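Q: My labmate handed me this sequence with no annotations at all. I'd like to see what the chain might look like in three dimensions before we decide whether it's worth expressing. Could you predict it?
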Amino acid sequence: MECGATMSDETMTRDLLEAARGAALTAYAPYSGFHVGAAFRFDDGTVIAGSNFENASYGLAICAETAAAIAANLQGRRTGLVEVAIMGGPLGDDGALAPTAAPVTPCGRCRQVMNELAQLGGTDPVVYSGHATGWIEHRLSVLLPAAFGPANLE
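A: Here is what I predict for the chain of 154 residues:
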């Protein structure tokens, strides 16, 4: 990249999805075989990723988006969330992620967790849900309308 040049929005989105894909490769998914990675981009360009971590007591599994939110919190990041990318699917025989044909969208719990982080910083992040041939995008407020958050407790 030339000095002073900036990446295009599409390049930045692809890079964020690649970070999510890379995170999915670290997932611990022995029960479902479905590896998910999430990557959060903050307003200063920092990217923090997480992957799902399953548990023999299935209900105790941690989703990739929740893992990324916890990692962000551990780094002192509670504001500035602007973009989220999610990729998921099984691993192929070559060990590479085989993204699904349908977009991987966050579950309800993860939407709520991301909403908490977004509301703390007054943002409405774009959520990119990856699939085998690209991605779809929504604002978090579209994925979780009339969300409950910190302001509701005041």
